[in-house]
Amino acid sequence: MDNTVSNSGGNKTALVKIQRFGNFLSGMVMPNLGVFVAWGILTALFIPTGWIPNDYLGELVSPILTYAMPMLIGYTGGKMIHGNRGGAIGVLATMGVIVGADVTMLSGAMLMGPLAAWLMKKVDGVLDGKFKPGFEMLVSNFSMGILGLIIVIAGYVAIGPVMQGILNVLSGGVNWVLEHKLLPLLSIFVAPAQVLFLNNAINHGIMAPLGLEQVAAAGKSILFLVDPNCGPSVGTLLAVSIFGRGMAKRTAPMAAIIAGIGGIGEVYFPFVLMKPKLVFATMGGMATSLGLFQLLGGGTVATPSPGSFFAMLMLTPRGAMVGNLVGFFAGMAVSFTIGMLLLKTERGGEEEEELADGSLAERAKYNNAVLSQGTQGVSINKIVVACDAGMGSSAMGASILKTQAKKAMLDVEIINTKIEEIPNDTDLIVTHTQLVERAKKLHGDGQKKFMTITNFMEGDQYKDIIAYLKQVKSSVGEERAVVEKKQSTPISKEVLSIDNIRLNQSFDTKEAAIKKAGDILVENGYVKPEYVQSMQEREKTVSVYVGNHVAIPHGTGNSEDLILKSGISILQVPKGVSFGAETAYVLIGIAGKGNSHLEILSKIADFCSDSKNVEKIRQATSEEEILRMLSAIN
């Protein structure tokens, strides 16, 4: 038993290390993907085999590939290690291997950029504090100059030729695989690696450098379609949509659209993690696609990223369109068929996959651990939804969590990012069960909380997080009440009087509505006139719309000096006022001196969390009616 646990822990550690290494490689490429796409379109259009051949414009292709793209990667890799200083020496080091080799040095840039920056960081650490004030700039410039000289010469004389030799061996291996029609066998390794969040490592760390070598020689490469081809994963999702069960069946159609059109492949991973045998469906579809791409002369001129159907078409050169279309749809059909057979042959008595899924049990383990710690002394102001690349899946997850937090009247900042770039001031990190150990290793400081999900786009999985945030909010309110030695009391006339309420208001803009809410507070002696501008600044920074057709305008964090005493204003806007895509019918202006208004605000928030109560305020015919409703809250 102990050996099993030990092996499991070792496997997780190894997976985390592989993920981190792969993510580091992709981290050098992904910030520059727009440049790669621009170069890819340029190539697809203007090279001799392109859609509209043009010798003059085609002259741009080779210099961008040879110099600009490796130098961008070298700079990005260096910056990841040692900021702008690391990026600068990373470019210099990359130039050495570019000139020292006769092949495109993307792989060389991935080595030299971080290596040069790491050496620069070590040198800076040794020299830090060793010289008198006034000599810092001199030492800084000459230390980089001397180290840069050594590294660029080393790259030119030794490392460049070595990297060229390695690339020649790898290219020879790829050519051997292609000549012997063995490319479909890559699906055996790539399909399982995808769902372990190693897709970016495969795509940008391995296939892209080799693929660009082929583009330089042949004008296209099939290697760009090994991972980004979404046809097989869409086919698997369509099979789940029709023949699956439970929550998986209900969410798979939207996941198929997002994967196929949006190119966010991560939405497919949870369905395979819930039912691992489905990886064989994707594997079969991928092998079919690769076989047909090779047979019919498919390929693209750059990595389709995001890996959507339309991105693939945009980067397809003339002469490869038929092969790409046939391979894409054939792979989708095969994966759909295999997925259908796998799902239809299940035992009739099997429980829904959600109930038996080990990853869901792991999610419950992490989340229950956080919930069991209690909320005393806990404050959650910033939440980060993190994924491997910090783009598609975490962006969707953050959007879903923001929507649910607004409906629950929770005032928290929610952003998304890649795991390596989670800010230090984060209070709660939300990520996938497959990624949480990596996140803990990088950011586990004993202060941050970690909660997990198994599907970024499944709204129900965020309920645990919302429940926890409500507990924290309630606990904070109780602690403040104890500190202030207050009992729950009705809303006092000093904070909200009939003079603070306005009916039948109409506004063309949200700015006008916020100004009116602030003007009432000014007129009744709660705030200084400058506080109104602070309310406008708050809306520019973080929307004061909180959901359920309610907005709560208030000042920024540094505006307390502009508040004379706590007060609340109420605006009834029957026809509504637009807050972006949302409409507010009720605005509650807030000015809080100290914490005296927080209990009242909490009560109003709870009251407005019920849409029926918001509608009552919207339909009220007198100020007294609204005041009675809010005064009755206890």
From TrEMBL:
Residues 494-633 form the PTS EIIA type-2 domain. The chain crosses the membrane at residues 21-48, 60-77, 89-112, 146-170, 182-202, 222-243, 255-273, 293-315, 322-343. Residues 381-477 form the PTS EIIB type-2 domain. Its EC number is 2.7.1.197. InterPro entries: PTrfase/Anion_transptr, PTS_EIIA_type-2_dom, PTS_EIIB-like_sf, PTS_EIIB_2, PTS_EIIB_2/3, PTS_EIIB_mannitol, PTS_EIIC, PTS_EIIC_2. One of its GO terms (molecular function) is kinase activity. Keywords: Cell inner membrane, Cell membrane, Kinase, Membrane, Phosphoprotein, Phosphotransferase system, Sugar transport, Transferase, Transmembrane, Transmembrane helix, Transport. PROSITE patterns: PTS_EIIA_TYPE_2 (PS51094), PTS_EIIA_TYPE_2_HIS (PS00372), PTS_EIIB_TYPE_2 (PS51099), PTS_EIIC_TYPE_2 (PS51104). This is Mannitol-specific phosphotransferase enzyme IIA component. It comes from Enterococcus gilvus ATCC BAA-350.
